[in-house]
Write a structure and sequence with these properties.
Blueprint: E1 9-11, E2 15-18, H1 25-34, H2 36-39, H3 53-68, E3 73-79, E4 85-95, E5 101-108, H4 117-132, E6 137-142, H5 147-155, E7 159-170, E8 173-183
Parallel strand pairs: 5-6
Antiparallel strand pairs: 1-2, 2-3, 3-4, 4-5, 6-8, 7-8
Helix pairs in contact: 1-3
């Protein structure tokens, strides 16, 4: 078996993918403030202090430590040679044992949509996370009306597996979600 070590920095064709530390909290705060009107309707309610440097610094500290412990990974996306984040891809809720699964989530700056950036980032990261964490299954939960996210997942060979009634509290209300899964191809022939 080959061991793959996850790095804090990768480059894909057009993107830099970075695990951020607290010194990037102002850039992350700017991302959330810039996209507040787009993200708030499709995410859990955020406390008002979410939109502060202190909160983002503490969150980046927690995320970095969770990355070091192989518990949670959030890669922030940047166009090459830019220090302005345009989105992120998050892998969480890792489960081993008989399951070898995790959840994937993502968000993209409203000004960066339609360029294939998220597809590029996820296509780049999926095989790395699959190898490093020995994942068999990735799960994504999507609001049924989020057509662009559904298209993205299907293009990446995720398959719709179910309908989750009243699954998660989004913007203060429990909402139905679609369950999409990606099964990692068998690599036993490698």
């Amino acid at each position: 078996m080959r061991i793959v070590i996850m790095l804090t920095y990768y480059q894909s064709e057009r993107l830099e993918l970075r695990i951020l530390k607290p010194d990037s909290s102002s850039a992350v705060l700017d991302f959330y403030e810039r996209n507040r009107n787009t993200l708030e309707p499709v995410e859990p309610l955020r406390p008002q202090y979410f939109y502060t440097i202190t909160y983002q610094s503490r969150n980046l500290t927690w995320e970095y430590n969770a990355f070091l412990k192989s518990k949670h990974i959030r890669y922030w996306m940047f166009r090459k040679n830019s220090n302005i984040p345009i989105g992120c891809v998050c892998f969480s809720e890792f489960q081993g044992g008989a399951f070898h699964r995790c959840m994937i989530g993502y968000k993209l700056d409203q000004t960066a949509t339609g360029n294939g950036y998220m597809q590029e980032a996820i296509a780049f990261l999926l095989p790395l996370v699959a190898k490093h964490y020995e994942m068999h299954r990735f799960e994504a939960m999507v609001l049924p009306e989020n057509e662009s996210s559904i298209r993205l997942l299907e293009h990446l060979h995720f398959v719709r597996e179910g309908y989750l009634h009243s699954f998660a509290q989004i913007n203060g209300q429990y909402r139905d979600h679609l369950l999409y899964t990606y099964i990692v191809p068998d690599s036993s022939e490698d």
